[in-house]
From TrEMBL:
One Gene Ontology biological process: aldehyde metabolic process
Cross-referenced PROSITE patterns: ALDEHYDE_DEHYDR_CYS (PS00070), ALDEHYDE_DEHYDR_GLU (PS00687)
InterPro entries with a match to the protein in the record: Ald_DH/histidinol_DH, Ald_DH_C, Ald_DH_CS_CYS, Ald_DH_CS_GLU, Ald_DH_N, Aldehyde_DH_dom, Aldehyde_DH_NAD(P)
Family classification: Belongs to the aldehyde dehydrogenase family.
Aldehyde dehydrogenase domain sequence ranges: 17-442
Active site: E223, C257
Molecular function GO labels: aldehyde dehydrogenase (NAD+) activity
Lineage top rank: taxon: Bacteria
UniProtKB keywords: NAD, Oxidoreductase
GO cellular component terms, semicolon-separated: cytoplasm
Record keyword rRNA-binding present: no
Protein name listed in UniProt: Aldehyde dehydrogenase
Natural source organism: Kocuria coralli
Amino acid sequence: VPDTRLAAVDGLREPERREIDATIRRTREGFGLPCALELRLDRLDRLEAMLRDREDQLLAALADDLGKSATEAWGTEIGTVFGEIAHLRKLLPSWQRPRAVPSSAPLVPSRAWADRQPLGTVLVVAPWNYPVQLVLSPLAGALAAGNTVVVKPSEVAPAVAEVLADGLREFLGDCVGVVTGGVPETTRVLQHRFDHIFYTGNATVGRVVMRAAAEYLTPVTLELGGKSPAWVDGTADLEVAAARIAWGKFVNAGQTCVAPDYVMGPPEVLTALEPLLIAAIGRLYGPDPSISDSYGRIATARHLGRLTELLDQVDPEDVVTGGQRREDERYLAPTVIRSSQDGPFMQEEIFGPVLPLVPVEDHRAAIDAVNAREKPLALYVLSEDEAVRDGFRRNTSSGGMAIGAPLVHLAHPHLPFGGVGESGMGSYHGEYSLRTFSHERAVLDKPLKPDTLKMVYPPYSALKARG
Ligand code: NAD
């Protein structure tokens, strides 16, 4: 049936349009119920085999696109996906079993359970900052749940997109379709009907995705970003706090959705933190990070331009360390600045290697400051004071929270990962991926005899008489 909702898209030629449509149609045709457990496990095996086969190419592509060191790329991307696949494969059989619920007295005799079913064909749209993990981790979950999947890697990491497209077509061509390209291609993809859309990226495009999904009442998961704050106070070991914050901030040159965006603390604590952060950066990347093989690059000249424009608005007196840049290499040094709550870097998510230190009176003022902004994707508390930790936990809302270190909550296989409010909706990882990419069907089985339901049949006058 021709779909009248498929309109022309600016910047897309007829053959490209037809190829995208054919990819989506083929992926749809690949879906069928019930999608047995053995088939799902086989697909996870093939995903793992693809990753093993293309590992070296992916590492080279990550170095090309983002200047990622092989060790960091393994730790934050490839190794993470291997771990996710292994976790899904191990626990899928138990997660997939029908879940019996207790019988309900008014319905006796009967049995009831919830069945997890695949949704159909899922769309995964991924960004450039962790371009392997953010395609393959949701893909693994969607395949484990028995769906077929169309993936759209980011055009901002083109080398990775090409390796993934090639590998996925070779190893999983029967159940995964890949569309590469940018805005015109994604716009075309979004005109199609899917059974779920999983989008990771910024909130502006998140709105575009959600509008497109509304056309077919397609459910969405939106994995977005935001300004994730960190709180440090004098009860914390400041040397450890500085090391952990520097690591969480400057990994992938600050282009991490859950990176601590800025640090709040009492003024004297932030002053004490400054030399410790400088020392920590020195230990991580040496005296000149531009020649460190552990320090990444900014994705594009446009992204670097955004950061340097903001940096040029900062008073040089307020630059604690860093600020050096090299346009030809898309390099920006790990940078720490002093800022107020309304400084140039405090308007939007920074998404780069610049760390503002923002003094506040105490943790209550910091909680108010968090609550005055949109709900962040993550919140970090580095304090030994139980009342302070509890205060943040009870009185703020964020996608996730980690106490004592940034980023680590992401690595726990049994925790959901996702945002809330402006930082997103829905979650994934492990069993949460299975929930996201499945429909939980309620099933009730009531024997025809004895007909206990006759108690509720009309006429209701007779019902009343029966008491
Ligand atoms: P991006 O520019 O790669 O965009 C993401 C995807 O959206 C790409 O596939 C792109 O083709 C598509 N796209 C872009 N413009 C579009 C349009 N107008 N219409 C349709 N599709 C379009 O990545 P980005 O958005 O710059 O990513 C950075 C953001 O993502 C940050 O805000 C970051 O915090 C967030 N992020 C969130 C997570 C998470 O897991 N919550 C992870 C990584 C990044």
